[in-house]
Write a structure and sequence with these properties.
Layout (H helix, E strand, L loop, with lengths): L1 H10 L4 H29 L9 H6 L8 H31 L7 H30 L3 H24 L3
Helix pairs in contact: 2-4, 4-5, 5-6
Amino acid sequence: MLMEALKKILFEKNHAGIQFLKYAFCGGIAFAADIVTFFLVAWFFFPALTDDDIFVRIFNLEIQPVSESVRMVNFVICSALAFLVSNMTAYILNVFFVFKAGKHSRWKELGLFYLVSGISIAIGTGVGAALINVFGLATTFSYIAKSVSATLINYAGRKFFIFHG
C-alpha cells in the first residue's frame, strides 16, 4: 500500500500541487548539477572566483586571481557549460516525473526545452555578468541572481509551451 502511494506521487502528473513540488525537487537536483559543474569549471578551467567569494571561503580554496573583465567572460563560459549539464538533467527528470510528454515529438520537445532554458539562462547570465561588471559583486551572488531568474522563466515555459501542463 505504501509503495503504491509512493508510486502514485512519483508518477502522477495531473495534480498541480504535487506537480509543482516534484518540479521543485527535480529542479533542486538539476540546480545541484549546475552548481557543481559551474564552480568546478570556475575553479579548475576558467577562473572566475575571487578570494572573498563564499564558495572559496567555505571550501578554503586556493584560486588564480584574474581581472574583472576576464572574470566576467569566464563567468559566462562557466555558466554555459553548467547549463548544458544541468539542463539535460532537468529534461530527463521533468519527462519522467513532472510533466506529460507528447505535446511535440521527442526531438522538438528537447529542442524547445533547450530553447526556453537557453533564453532564460541568457537573461540570467546577463544579469549575473552585469552584477559583476557594474557592481563588482562576488561570483556567488551573481550566480544566485542568474539561477533565480532562470527558474521562474523555465517553469512557465515548460508548463505552458513544451509539455501537456
